[in-house]
Amino acid sequence: MTRASTVDFGRKKPREVNWSGPLRPANIIRNKFPTYKNGSNGIVIKLADGPEMPSRKEVVAKETADLLDRRQRLSVRELTMKFEKGFNTATLLSNEVKSRHAALLERDILLKNLKSVLESLRGRVGGKNKDEIDESLSMVDILAVQLSKREDELLQQKAEVTKIASSLKLASEDAKRIVDEERANARSEIEGAKAAVQRVEIALKEHENISQKIGKQDMDELKETVQEARRLKMLHCPSKAMDIESEIQVLRDQLYEKSANSLQLLKELKLHQRFEENDMPLYELEGLESLGSVLRIVAQNKEFVDFSKRSIQWFRIQPDKGSKKEIISGATKPVYAPEPHDVGRYIQAEIEYCGRISIARSAGPVDPAAGLADYVEALLRNPETEYNVVILQVNGIPQPADSLHVLCIGRLRMRLAKGKTVVAKEFYSSAMQLCGVRGGGDAAPQAIFWRPRKDLSFVLAFETIRERNSALMLARRFAADCNDDATFCLMNADYPCRSGGQNNVIFVTSMFAAEPYSFAWLRFKARSSLGASQVELTLPKNVFGTPPGANRTFSLKDHGL
């Protein structure tokens, strides 16, 4: 059995006990030596060190590490449960020994009584019964010896159990004392942790308050500065921008009046010339003859005319004498909004009624919009330009004008989308049509007609007139660049090629291709020997395998030659 003196439950001597007390403030730790300096007369002076306050981050990290260390220790409740379990076991063993000792005492009394009874019987009987009684007496003696040995063993066990019980009792007392001490230490540490958390919370609140105060002070100072600047600006420096805007508006009004007066004078001059020639027109064009305006056909005598019963067609004419008039496709309404392609040209409208054709012509060529060319040149530097538009019509069907879309005009294609949904997307080709809206009233200068393919058409309204005109110019410029931008061969002489199956010779005058030269198709201009006007064809590159003057056969049935 283990001796009680050798049982060690982790107790320490009083002088070795070093329980960790509550946390001490971190700012009492010194991290450097004191500072000295040499004073006058060789006297060494110790400088007072300023209080070193650790950063808030270090304090929080240290407190967190201490809390994790305490969490890993054995809890007080578990230690108490272990000692109580051992004490209960020792109590059970002691009770068992006591019960066995009581049973032994009862056996001794019974054996003595049995022995006295057998001895009294031996004196009374004789013969065979006497021998049996003697044998019984010997057995009783043997049993008494065995019981005495067993009693000695039980006494020894009792002594050992008593020692164990005393050791356990002592250990239990030590455990209770340790538990009380640990509980006190835990309480003190908890109080210290709470105090540390409170300090951190107070520091954070102070930091927030300081930040809010500083931010509020900065905002107040900024407001005061802005107000002072506004006051000084109002008192000492009048707004030059407002003056410039006012001057620009005045100049615009004056320019509008001058243009209207000049246009009226030109019309009167034309009318006077026609009066001398006995050619008085029945109609005239009303409106500024500039890009962004609207031209209307009105009667010369200012009477109301029902144009629904008359056939109207608009033309554009170059200012050179003898120039042919170019028909404006789709312009059959009494109202027309000039587009960038009309700049520098005369606009003429022919009104047919009862077999008689009347002409209304602009007094001068259409004037460009100020700054539009520079604006378009700046947009050409971008790979694509986006415009906010509203769909007015789809395939001629009016649409609700409350849905905003984005029209993207790129170098290779045009795309109309709403968010991530693409409504229409098409590369530049000869099948695509793009022009200003024909008719449409006062909204015509801000709208365009776009037909990306034969089965789909849109009428789109822009936010401003300038955006509408720039979109038309960009799209036409990019389309032209895609068709014949990189000219790499220009024939010195006609390049004869005979069409298969026809007696018609096509003379190639120029050839175009977009880089890289590995494209499988070429574009070239040609003219027909049968007097047809110049056309553009697309043929395989291997048609031109020999020097100029060689004949090549190819099909022109798709081109009507």
Provide a descriptive summary of the structure in words.
Residues 183-210 form a coiled coil. Residues 384-483 form the Stomatal closure-related actin-binding protein PH domain. This is Stomatal closure-related actin-binding protein coiled-coil domain-containing protein. InterPro entries: SCAB, SCAB-ABD, SCAB-Ig, SCAB-PH, SCAB_CC. This protein is of the alpha+beta class. 42% of the residues lie in helices and 22% in strands. It has helices at 56-72, 76-122, 128-236, 240-276, 372-379, 465-484, and strands at 35-38, 44-47, 283-286, 295-299, 311-317, 325-327, 335-336, 346-353, 356-361, 384-394, 397-398, 404-410, 413-418, 421-427, 433-436, 447-453, 456-462, 495-499, 505-512, 521-528, 535-540, 553-554. Strands 10, 11, 12, 13, 14, 15, 16 and 17 form an 8-stranded antiparallel beta sheet that branches. A 5-stranded mixed beta sheet has the order 21-20-19-18-22, with no helix packed on it. Strands 6-5-8-9 form a 4-stranded antiparallel beta sheet, with no helix packed on it. The longest helix has 109 residues, at 128-236. The model is unreliable at 1-36, 43-48 and 484-561 (pLDDT under 50).
